[in-house]
Amino acid sequence: MTYAIFPDKQGNTVIDQIDPGGFPKAGPHPIPEIPKGEKRGDLPFWQAPADGPSIVGDPNSMTIVTLLAAYTDAAAAESADIQSEINLAVSMANTSFANSGINITLQLVGTIAATYVEAGRSASTVINDARLGMAGSGELSELYSARRTFGADLSSP
Questions:
Q1: Do the beta carbons of residue 126 and residue 118 sit within 8 Å?
Q2: Which of 69, 100, 102, 141 is most solvent-facing, going by the fewest CB within 10 Å?
Q3: In 1-99, where do the E strands start and end?
Q4: Cβ(105)–Cβ(126) under 8 Å?
Q5: Where do the domains of the chain lie?
């Protein structure tokens, strides 16, 4: 059996049983493995650049991606412990990567309470505001400096 364990808003621990039979059947990996040092001309340009390393990476090494997680007051208000939920999300992502044979590990380097009110805004507006913020402008510009302060490769608004 597989279980998901997480806190609810009242501070209780919720244990959900997950039926693995509901997941789609796993098949072969959609991208064929490329022997080290060999380049393939039939791969998309973003997978096998003409020079330099491929983003496919070395299947024998682990890539660590440092992460800054941002949250809003509204998100924190819906959580009994927002820090624990962020840690749980990172842990679940890392477990998913490992179970899928993906050689990536997320390393949480920091969290930030963003001074942003998402109420009444569409998802596309929030995403656009996050993009502007990561470029150093707009309402989420604090993410720009925080990402550099924490030395994060990636920010999750």
A1: yes
A2: 100
A3: 2-7, 13-18, 63-71
A4: no
A5: 57-157
